Fold each of these.
Amino acid sequence: MADKEDPKNGKMGKGKSKVVCGYPLSIFFIVVNEFCERFSYYGMRAVLVLYFKYFLRWDDDLATSIYHTFVALCYLTPILGAIVADSWLGKFKTIIYLSIVYAVGQVAMAVSAIHDITDSDRDGTPDSMTFHIVLSMVGLFLIALGTGGIKPCVAAFGGDQFGEHQDRQRRTFFSVFYLCINGGSLLSTIITPVLRAQECGIYSKQKCYSLAFGVPAALMVVALVVFIIGSGMYYKAEPQGNIMLDVCKCIGVSLAYTICINTFYITAYQQWLKKLLIAQIKMVLKVLFLYIPLPMFWTLFDQKGSRWTLQATTMDGNFGALVIQPDQMQTVNPILILTLVPIMDSLIYPLIKKCGLNFTPLKRMTVGMLLAAIAFVCAALVQIQIDVSTKQLLHSSPYILSGQGFIYFKLTIKGKANSDTEIVENQAITFVGFTDYFLVYFRFVNGMKTAVNVSTAAADFGLIEPFYYSNYSQIKNGKATFTLRSGSQSCEYSTNFGFGSSYTFFIHSTLVFGSNCQDSVTAVEDIKPNSVHMALQIPQYFFITAGEVMFSVTGLEFSYSQAPSNMKAVLQAGWLFTVAIGNFIVLIVAELAKIPKQWAEYVLFASLLVAVCVIFSIMAYFYTYIDPTEIEAQFKKKINEDDEDDKSKPGKAEVEMVKRDSIKCHDEYDKATQTKM
Ligand SMILES: CC(C)C[C@H](NC(=O)[C@@H](N)CC(C)C)C(=O)O
């Protein structure tokens, strides 16, 4: 289809779309669709593990494995969607059909989370867990198929809306596209956990997972409707046959031609068709070859959600009025994307250009990788800080004296609460794994001759016999007021618990009930509160996000611009495939390289990425940027010329016959050579 003319920009957007400020109006529907779709995807993902754990009652290991398998599947299915789009249905229809599959999947998830469906005895818990498990697994499979399937198509379809001479506008489109991804995901990761925390139900009230999945489902329906509304304005490139089959045929026929070169007459027309397909395959293979080192970037990038979140659990999340949960730190990434993308596009890149530097896409991606490596060096430095603060504790407080002269405790403390903590000697307590960031541990030692009961407004911790101690109990961090009671007499003791801390409280023998008992209790820190502040993670988030902007936004556009017209979605899928491989590498490295020191693991990952980055920059040096549209136009011109000129111009049937005969010849050749052997 011919591009529309625009008075300002020469050739303008394709399709029937109006042009607003130099951009085809159709892309508005595409970016809104992306915003809603990403809201749907990330919103559902934000509560998924909790749904597994608390609704389906799976253990942590099973919940984590199924979660990662689902995420990996979401980045594998793009290949499927791309092949269907480029070879068969076209991008538009593929997006529509797979969005329906996606929305059905989301609805299935929402329904699977309604506990009342199988709660026949109305006690608040589902009676047939199998129903909920099967429905949610079917839902997740459909979602993975939908989200992955449409992902390469939507980006490439957006790119298709721009005319040949709209490189600048197309680049801006990919930046806006990325902003929408992050805007949608940011909003949903804030909203869906709030929805989940609500209580809902018909017969009994439970945590509202159905609402937390239902809203993303509704957003997916909105995404679909918005996309359909734009239908009349889009430029819809026709699918160009089964590309994969064409590639195989091309190789087969080429061989046959080579073998039977003297037997058959090949028209110039056919030659050019074949050469065009070969050129297109070469374009794709060159880019795919360049992608080989890229998964390493994603290996580091995706550790935000795992290693970095665990690191945050050993840090202090008190931001004054705001207390940040470790997993909430991840929202720093989309927030920074929303600020950095406009800054890069309107300030940094133009400034670099003004300085006369040619900051090509591959150079940007190389710098992006280096920034990600720097982020991991920052993470290592923060880790060293955390380790030092923990070590100080180990050396400074192995002994605890009651201060009142009769109770002596010897404690050996390893690690921090919420991670791997062990307190040996007088009584052993082991906290293994991340429990709840907000919970801290405490116990009381009773130095009085009478039994004392300890309670708070929310819980009763029981009676402690004279000269004895209680077991460790958990309490929310922050201020706590304990009531100490003996018979009808009581007094109150208040204290403050820092994140990740653990305390032993000694009740003095001199305590007098009825008066203020604040001075008659001594608090001893078994485990110091997390002293390294979570704000120290901001530099690492800054560098990884700056790296992402340079690497991922550029890579997205690069994958589109370097792909031949019939394989745009295929190359987008290739790009997303690097994300899937990156995720697998995280799993493998975490399993294989059991490095005892976390900071050393961060340094290892940073070094690996630098090494990969050097290889990538060498590969990039030898890469020649192409303009697929121009190359294809040249071929098509030749095809048309020869089609006109060739006196013995073959009809379609004739071409097919030549191909068939050539293959037959090839088979004959095979048979002949086999007989000889
Ligand atoms: C290819 C994807 C990894 C890119 C993109 N992700 C992001 O933009 C992240 N910054 C989002 C954040 C919420 C993790 C996506 O398409 O999801």
Amino acid sequence: MNYVQFYYPEGFAHCYGCGRLNPEGHQFKTYWDPEKRESRTEFTPKPYHTAIPGFVYGGLLASLVDCHSTATGSAALKELESTPWDQGPYPRCVTASLEVQFLKPTPLGPTLVAVGRVLERSERKVVVGTEVYADGVLTVKGKAVVVRIPEGWGG
Ligand SMILES: CCCCCCCCCC(=O)SCCNC(=O)CCNC(=O)[C@H](O)C(C)(C)COP(=O)(O)OP(=O)(O)OC[C@H]1O[C@@H](n2cnc3c(N)ncnc32)[C@H](O)[C@@H]1OP(=O)(O)O
């Protein structure tokens, strides 16, 4: 199964967080389950993504929620099109607002799993709820408003 970011048009694939064409970036990859209507991004932080030794830097966690949310929004908008989910291109979203709750320190080492759900969707805007788990423990919750990129923004 290909990931959402795989289907972004080339001009929108350079994001530091999730751009497949940015070799310096995190290259987050988000998978969309069309039946469950749920998204999933897995990422293993590097040892240098440290806040205090042993724990993940919060900015990285916010980035994960950010890009995971734009990808989830993209998949949710793709559902409105007549083409199948596994055929690109996908609509591209930007984040209008991002809330992150750090519920517990996130241990550095385990692969993080972000799970996203569509809370609200219109033709242009998607509200995405995300939970991030480390070793099965919920450590971060996020909520993002993502908006289909306006006409004429590259791509
Ligand atoms: C060219 C390359 C592009 C590549 C994209 C890569 C993106 C990678 C992911 C990111 O890192 S995003 C980076 C951080 N985000 C930004 O830089 C976005 C900056 N903000 C904007 O450009 C505009 O504010 C934005 C496009 C998000 C919205 O402006 P619009 O004038 O198009 O929005 P509009 O006022 O029409 O509102 C559309 C809907 O969004 C809602 N909305 C807009 N801003 C909001 C906000 N801040 N909070 C909550 N809701 C918001 C607004 O209420 C409305 O909801 P409804 O349709 O239900 O009425």
Amino acid sequence: MIEFHNVSKRYAGAAPALVDVSLAISSGELAFLAGPSGAGKSTLLKMIAAIERPSSGTVLLNGQDVGAIKQRGLPYLRRKLGLILQEQRLLMDRNVLANVMLPLMVAGAAPAEADRRARAALARVGLPDRAGSMPVSLSGGEQQRVAIARAIVHRPQVILADEPTANLDRDSADLVLGLLQDFNRAGVTCVISTHDEHFLQHASRVIYLSHGRASEGWQRRPVAEDAA
Ligand SMILES: Nc1ncnc2c1ncn2[C@@H]1O[C@H](COP(=O)(O)OP(=O)(O)OP(=O)(O)O)[C@@H](O)[C@H]1O
């Protein structure tokens, strides 16, 4: 369970990025974050991973105050999370397998075990044959699937994805979202920010952010516009 209690965030010298946000996302839920550029979506996701900390208010993950976790406790938190964030591009000078193995190696796994699990993760995202490829030789959609494999290789409880389908064509975007939905059906809580109305209109839960304030639901466009 992810809980935000009256969370505000103000970066130095900027307008507030989040304003008094209170919400709860249940374990096993699939929640989308929507809202215009700059509305606070990335900031909200980063708070759950303690990459950013609240200026005021509390963020809880399974009852633990994430904002209060000390530096040395962060690896333990991050092991519960699968992060697909905009800053975390693939390492272009390492092959696909090495990229997916990385979180396990950092966590101290034996290389043979990391190799085995990374290959299994690549199979889960439909790329079992690309282990030896360099990321640059992959399409944008395939690179994003590698990023998903890297995010799930350690079997996280929660996936946080920041615009995972940005810059992808419709088919690739559907494939990437379908993968995330598969993990959600297998019990993983997913919080996904997106601008993609195609997904939002069919989502069971949408948290809409505007100027850092959160509300629930997605305003469907008029029916005539939908049909066009
Ligand atoms: N590290 C930072 N330092 C200063 N201001 C920041 C920082 N990160 C975000 N902001 C500001 O906080 C606000 C919210 O940004 P955020 O990236 O969370 O929005 P977003 O909804 O994810 O936008 P986008 O859809 O463009 O990714 C914006 O005004 C942004 O400029």
Amino acid sequence: MDMMTDDNYMEGLEMETENQPTMDNDFSARLSDKTYQYPTIREGTSSSCRRVKVRSRPRLQSTKSFPPYNQCIGGLGEDGDGDDELYPEPSNVTRGDRNDVFQGTERNEDIELIPRCARDEVKEHWKLRRKERVGESDEVDTDGLERWSGKRRVEEKSECEDGRGKGAQTASGNTAGWSSPHPILSKLLHSSSGSSGSSINFSSAESDDVFSEGEDVGSKRRAFRKSRSWKTYLTMVHWSLRRQGSWVQLAGHQGNFQLSEGGEVLKLYCEVEAKCLDSLMRDALRPFVPQYHGCVTRGEHCYIRLEDLLSGLRRPVIMDCKMGVRTYQEEEVTKAQTRVTLRSDMYQKMVKVDPTAPSVEEHKQKAVTKSRYLQWRDTTSSTSTLGFRIEGIMMEDGSIQRDFKKILTLAKVTEAMLYFTRSQLDILKAYHSRLLALSEALKNSLFFRTHEVIGSSLLFVHDHSSKASVWMIDFGKTTPLPDRLELRHNIPWAEGSREDGYLIGLMSLITSLSQAISMASSQQEESCGEEQSVA
Ligand SMILES: Nc1ncnc2c1ncn2[C@@H]1O[C@H](COP(=O)(O)OP(=O)(O)OP(=O)(O)O)[C@@H](O)[C@H]1O
Ligand SMILES: O=P(O)(O)O[C@@H]1[C@H](O)[C@H](O)[C@@H](OP(=O)(O)O)[C@H](OP(=O)(O)O)[C@H]1O
């Protein structure tokens, strides 16, 4: 079947059934209505669920047809294979997992200064799941590819007091597995079998075949409707799988995201982030931020509804750059001074990159504080030198590179840009002008002036058709400043200043893109010259 081979992503298929989102009515009308008032955020858990069922998402395969980044351009990723040999991970631990197994020292939740709502709970859930995996499976995701739907389990209500979940299931007439169409498919099937109008066109040959004989027109019609419903179902399955196959979570916390049928990305609710997004929808930065559609409750958790920035892109190429000269909040440092919480997972990440980084004491306790780890990450990457760092790049074949941890110079960043864009001038230029436009918008943004922007990313996305854009994402650690305080964002941080250095990072990126453009232009001219001399 076409859909199974198209992207080579699917190992198997299991359709998800779920409840109707509680705030999902009239979604398309909202999208087009610019004056739409975002729904009130409802915190807490859903009480309507009597029984919760857990089922696996479709498993996804990775492909890796291009050589890795560090082989392409002279081994920039110094922490690649060699380190892996020195400090091998347990064979059954997924490389890409963000929250490594804790060894002995439990994380103290008091370190969280701002309520992150359900996210802590989900982090714990993933840690537990990881422990379970270590015990029960020897699956290894060797290239670190973390396609969201391949690793996540979805909690879903199988029966709800309000009947919505039940309704979604009975619409298909089935209850589980392959045989159970997705709720949206169920609806489509239902309506397509009940009406003659369909958005799916079939060849006239097919229609002729069905209606050419005069006899038993009624049963022919029924047969046609049946086959059309089936085709509609397959087309929709294909569409749904393709979308799931092309969406990827490149960086960030595992378990934070889900896709919804409405073409949105659902991110686990965080009050800080929801408030920022709400303000951003009324700010000069709105064109640079995914559209925010309020919140929705799914199962036990509340999610922020965001525009899917990969929608419409075929085999997207993505880069996530974490912005700013630091990735920790000032409060994280001061709190760590009074309350010491040790993290063995962070110690492990540290020694993997540089075995000499921990102090004698840290080696002895095999743990570091989060604040120490975050500061070390910033000073050993381009965060402190250039005001941003590349968190990861996904190429069009789905391969993911995360070996940019030790990049410190602009020249190395420019090499990474050329690799990421495959030196395509039109894409480099599109990114360059988008960043210039962003820098103008930031000048006019009240939100930007009045917020400390920590840990936020710029998401670069393009595809083979040269659609290219850059978006501001992740506002989970972006906080409003006290009254009348405004930040410049273009000066280094000094404790107490709350400066984040966002504009230092933006300027570095713009400079790097300018360099990449001139290098790509000369490469192009050289190859043109060579072609002409051969001719
Ligand atoms: N609106 C969106 N559309 C498409 N992809 C998205 C969107 N938002 C996030 N992503 C994907 O998810 C990844 C992680 O996003 P984000 O940084 O918001 O998560 P996070 O868990 O808060 O991260 P962190 O751990 O850095 O705080 C991004 O790198 C990107 O690949
Ligand atoms: O990128 P790395 O080196 O893997 O390190 C992670 C990164 O710094 C995240 O930004 C941070 O989450 P926050 O931004 O939410 O603090 C996370 O902390 P966590 O493990 O406590 O979630 C770190 O583990």
